[in-house]
Write a structure and sequence with these properties.
With 137 residues, this protein is mainly alpha-helical. It has 5 helices and no strands. The chain has helices spanning 9-38, 48-72, 76-98, 105-125, 128-134. The protein is elongated, with a radius of gyration of 16 Å.
Length: 137
């Protein structure tokens, strides 16, 4: 499948920002996983739930970043994937943040940072100029 050429300057800028935010999301997620490894000996800091969610988050963020790079390069199919995945991940973050006592506060903060980055990505991918760029031709 070939990539389309993103000619609209506004869409190009929004896609570039989304790509950078997805890179930030991946960086925070990987650093969170690194913190999990470093503090894994303390069960008050790193619970089984933190291990599971942190591992999933790190892998998902790297996949989403790779899709975002492709999306910014004009991939229509990866544009759709990023929209769906980012929105689903925002919902997951909201659920996790809303469950009292489910995760240690440090993890909820890291998770919240990821969620904030993803909310902006969702808004950018749903922007009129970006949607118009990837509309079926």
């Amino acid at each position: 499948m070939t990539n389309l050429t993103v000619t609209d300057p506004d869409a190009r800028e929004k896609l570039d920002i989304a790509k950078k935010l997805l890179g930030g999301y991946a960086a925070v997620s990987v650093l969170t996983l690194l913190a999990i490894v470093v503090f894994s000996g303390d069960p008050d800091v790193v619970t089984d739930a933190v291990w599971i969610r942190g591992s999933i988050l790190a892998v998902a963020s790297l996949v989403t970043f790779a899709l975002g790079v492709s999306m910014a390069g004009g991939s229509r199919s990866n544009y759709r994937r990023v929209k769906i995945i980012a929105l689903a991940q925002v919902v997951a973050v909201v659920v996790i943040e809303s469950i009292p006592g489910s995760f240690p506060i440090w993890f909820k903060i890291a998770n919240g940072v990821c969620g904030a980055l993803l909310v902006i990505v969702v808004l950018l991918t749903f922007a009129r100029s970006v949607r118009a760029t990837f509309a079926a031709s």
